[in-house]
């Protein structure tokens, strides 16, 4: 993921979360995560360079995800969790394995960093997708206010 990708990332984000109960995140969030964890932020592009999808992630601690649209001053040290902040795929590429490829690339980088577990907040119907990848819901309702009703905090071991 590069800074030049951000306009297309914002387009994909707007389409993916058009009916969400939360406001879209700003470009500053994407630039922030890229600066803090560039090896854990990925895009998939078509042969012409158009974005098919993105995955934004970073090391974090367990139990309390960062609030949406929050710029982080720093990553926690030590951090044992890989936090999947956001993943979206263009409608024309859905079902083509883009999300899985992005996930695998970032997963491998997270494991190479020594991160031992993963966490995410599933919104909308995404909990079923992440459940198929081994994520299980964990009670964290107190930390999900910015994610909207129905958001689910999910975790899994890495390796």
TrEMBL record:
Family matches, as Gene3D superfamilies: 3.40.630.30
Superkingdom in the source lineage: Bacteria
Occurrences of domain N-acetyltransferase (ranges): 1-159
One Pfam family this sequence matches: Acetyltransf_1
Key words, A-Z: Transferase
Entry annotated with the keyword Transmembrane: no
A single GO molecular function term of this UniProt record: acyltransferase activity, transferring groups other than amino-acyl groups
Keyword field contains Nucleotide-binding: no
Protein name: Acetyltransferase
Species in which this protein is naturally found: Methyloversatilis universalis (strain ATCC BAA-1314 / DSM 25237 / JCM 13912 / CCUG 52030 / FAM5)
């Amino acid at each position: 993921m590069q800074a030049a990708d951000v306009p297309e990332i914002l387009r994909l984000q707007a389409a993916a979360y058009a009916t969400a109960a939360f406001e879209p995140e700003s470009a500053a969030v994407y630039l922030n995560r890229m600066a803090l964890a560039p090896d854990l932020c990925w895009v998939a592009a078509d042969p012409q360079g158009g974005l098919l999808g993105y995955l934004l992630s970073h090391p974090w601690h367990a139990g309390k995800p960062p609030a949406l649209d929050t710029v982080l001053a720093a990553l926690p040290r030590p951090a044992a969790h890989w936090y999947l902040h956001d993943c979206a795929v263009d409608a024309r590429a859905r079902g083509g394995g883009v999300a899985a490829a992005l996930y695998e690339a970032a997963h491998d980088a997270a494991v190479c960093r020594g991160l031992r577990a993963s966490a995410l907040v599933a919104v909308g119907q995404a909990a079923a997708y992440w459940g198929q990848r081994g994520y299980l819901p964990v009670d964290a309702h107190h930390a999900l206010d910015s994610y909207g009703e129905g958001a689910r905090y999910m975790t899994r071991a890495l390796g």
